[in-house]
Design the sequence.
């Protein structure tokens, strides 16, 4: 915790160019959106556990897909990872809860520190890591053989956690995911009976049931309509009060709406790397790097 | 308040009466032409008539489509005709087999068949004496035994291929495919030489189950593998991301999701072995009396019952008995396939 609190200032990271480019960037509408958010200063509220990465590289087979990412996710903040397709942001996200190794050819270097401890240290129980760092996927994937209620509580079964009163847990998870009022009368129906947006919120509720301190979201709204997207963004804002959230998104409006900090990833044909990280309002109003500015103003990507 | 007149629901994409009439007249014309061809030329017989009918109707429809529309539509109709021909050629033997068995077999079916065995009767006795209870029970016991042996092995093999995906996956997949081509007599001889002669020294239903397992395991493994591959990869990721170990994810998420597929694998595996005769002749012998103990003594089976009635009899009664047995066996297989389709179809809904 101490470590993450000391590195509060998501300073233009070690690698970001020093030259100041504070030229007049036209204040885009995104900057206004982002500016409306109150900057949550990490450390002032003791929420959840911070996550930090130190020089993370990733490979698939011989292909180097991610190069040297050092990034802090302060406790209780929402960080958006943006960048064009193929820049390694999803790969990076999956290194944060060791889902990266689920792909047979995957390899990795560097450290990911959860509460100051490297989650890749030998002898670490990978299932414990994933309990603490939950994940929501791009496509809603409720378990087809289970009812809505069973889906929410499936994590307890999978991780063999004993809980006394599961009814309360069920209600609180669905409530926090913003789904309780819609499904409270149909908990015994199958998850597949819900709409896409409801299914995604069911998946969020499912990942909340094991009480993670960090929640990773891999483009959680890319398969959803604007109304469902809005509901999920509301959910994210609610969740951010009690946990650390990292969200990959292709939708820059979304990044501006939901995140406290934004990290911009880019690949110039080689491995993806992180170009810049800053408070979201700064990324969208006065980014330090020219490439970031070009991306957020829609000049490419 | 404006009144909206609700129009009649219509289906403009359906073929009109006029088009149907034109196609029907073409078919009648083709039938006539082929009748004339039969009368005038050296063609004769049902096969000749059907061939000429197919050729003339194909040509006429081709011309009709060409005149109504264009070359592309005419070529389309040509492909359609040949596809229909292929379907008919496939269906003819099936319909022929089933109808022959039903027509010849129903005379051999009577209620007593299902409550008597052949302990006191010979195949040449009148058809209303004796029965196939022993064969039916023997088939159920041996197929059930084979299932108990094969399903765990086959399902675990499929799990190795889809979930563990270890270094041996490719050779094992190859071996399973090769194994599904093993002639059934080889399976029987293998059990005969590896278990019956050196160990038990006697024929029994259990040995029959072992021999059938050798044929059943590859079918179950391959079908179960295909069914497990249909489970979206995202579900595996979701299970693991919730803090489940691989084993718990498989047991709690993958297998329940693939349940209907696994039932299909079981039924296809049973259908594969239920008609096997050769291996059972070698290792379970063929009993004529009811034997409920799979560990000792010869055990009858439906294929053996049919084989014996056909080959050792010679009278009309023996043949009727054999056809009756065939009908029972065929009905058994149809029920299995029907339930497989029912169970796997239910998953879609």
Sequence:
């Amino acid at each position: 915790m101490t470590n993450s609190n000391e590195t509060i200032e998501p300073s233009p990271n070690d690698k970001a160019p020093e030259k100041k480019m504070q030229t007049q960037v036209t204040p885009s509408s995104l900057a206004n959106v982002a500016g409306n958010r109150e900057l949550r200063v990490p450390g002032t509220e003791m929420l959840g556990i911070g996550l930090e990465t130190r020089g993370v590289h990733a490979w698939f087979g011989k292909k180097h897909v991610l190069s040297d990412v050092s990034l802090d996710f302060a406790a209780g903040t929402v960080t958006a990872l943006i960048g064009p397709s193929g820049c390694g942001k999803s790969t990076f996200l999956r290194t944060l809860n060791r889902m990266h190794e689920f792909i047979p050819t995957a390899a990795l270097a560097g450290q990911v520190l959860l509460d100051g401890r490297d989650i890749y240290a030998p002898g670490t129980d990978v299932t414990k890591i994933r309990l603490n760092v939950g994940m929501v996927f791009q496509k809603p994937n409720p378990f087809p053989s289970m009812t809505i209620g069973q889906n929410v509580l499936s994590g307890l079964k999978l991780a063999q956690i004993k809980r006394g009163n599961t009814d309360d847990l069920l209600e609180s998870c669905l409530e926090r995911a913003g789904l309780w009022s819609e499904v409270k009368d149909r908990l015994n129906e199958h998850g597949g009976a819900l709409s896409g947006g409801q299914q995604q919120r069911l998946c969020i509720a499912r990942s909340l049931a094991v009480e993670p301190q960090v929640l990773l979201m891999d483009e959680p709204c890319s398969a959803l309509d604007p109304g469902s997207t809005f509901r999920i963004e509301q959910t994210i804002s609610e969740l951010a009060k009690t946990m650390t959230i990292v969200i990959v998104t292709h939708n820059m409006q979304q990044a501006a709406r939901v995140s406290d900090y934004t990290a911009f990833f880019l690949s110039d044909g080689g491995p993806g790397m992180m170009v810049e990280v800053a408070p979201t309002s700064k990324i969208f109003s006065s980014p330090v790097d020219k490439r970031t500015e070009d991306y957020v103003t829609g000049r490419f990507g | 308040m404006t009144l909206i007149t609700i129009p009649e629901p219509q289906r403009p994409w359906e073929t009109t009466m006029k088009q149907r009439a034109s196609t029907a007249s073409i078919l009648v014309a083709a039938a006539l032409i082929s009748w004339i061809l039969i009368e005038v030329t050296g063609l004769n017989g049902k096969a000749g008539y059907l061939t000429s009918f197919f050729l003339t109707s194909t040509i006429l429809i081709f011309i009709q489509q060409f005149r109504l529309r264009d070359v592309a539509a005419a070529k389309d109709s040509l492909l359609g005709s040949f596809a229909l021909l292929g379907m008919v050629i496939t269906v003819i033997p099936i319909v022929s087999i089933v109808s022959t068995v039903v027509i010849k077999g129903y005379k051999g079916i009577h209620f007593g068949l299902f409550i008597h065995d052949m302990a006191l009767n010979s195949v040449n006795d009148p058809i209303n004496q004796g029965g196939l209870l022993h064969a039916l029970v023997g088939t159920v016991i041996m197929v059930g035994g084979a299932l108990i042996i094969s399903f765990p092995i086959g399902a675990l093999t499929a799990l190795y291929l889809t979930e563990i995906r270890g270094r041996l996956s490719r050779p094992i997949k190859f071996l399973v495919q090769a194994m599904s081509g093993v002639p059934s007599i080889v399976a029987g001889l293998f059990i005969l030489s590896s278990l019956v002669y050196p160990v038990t020294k006697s024929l029994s239903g259990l040995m029959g189950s072992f021999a059938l397992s050798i044929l059943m395991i590859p079918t179950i493994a391959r079908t179960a593998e295909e069914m497990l591959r249909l489970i979206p990869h995202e579900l595996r990721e979701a299970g693991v991301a919730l803090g489940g170990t691989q084993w718990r994810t498989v047991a709690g998420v993958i297998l329940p999701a693939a349940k209907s597929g696994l039932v299909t694998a079981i039924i296809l595996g049973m259908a594969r072995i239920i008609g096997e005769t050769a291996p059972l002749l070698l290792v379970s012998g063929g009993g004529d009396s009811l034997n409920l103990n799979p560990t000792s003594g010869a055990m009858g089976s439906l294929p053996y019952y049919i084989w014996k009635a056909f080959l050792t009899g010679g009278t009309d009664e023996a043949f009727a008995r054999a056809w009756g047995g065939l009908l029972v066996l065929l009905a058994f297989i149809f029920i299995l396939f029907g339930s497989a389709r029912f169970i796997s179809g239910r998953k879609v809904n």
About this structure: The first strand of chain A starts at residue 51 and ends at 60. The interface with chain B takes residues 97, 99, 102, 104, 127-128, 130-131, 134-135, 137, 139, 141, 143-146, 154-155, 157-160, 203, 206-207, 210 of chain A (CB under 8 Å). The CA atoms of residues 43 and 219 of chain A lie 27 Å apart. The beta strands of chain A are 51-60, 63-73, 78-82, 106-114, 117-118, 133-136, 214-218, 244-248, 261-267, 272-279.
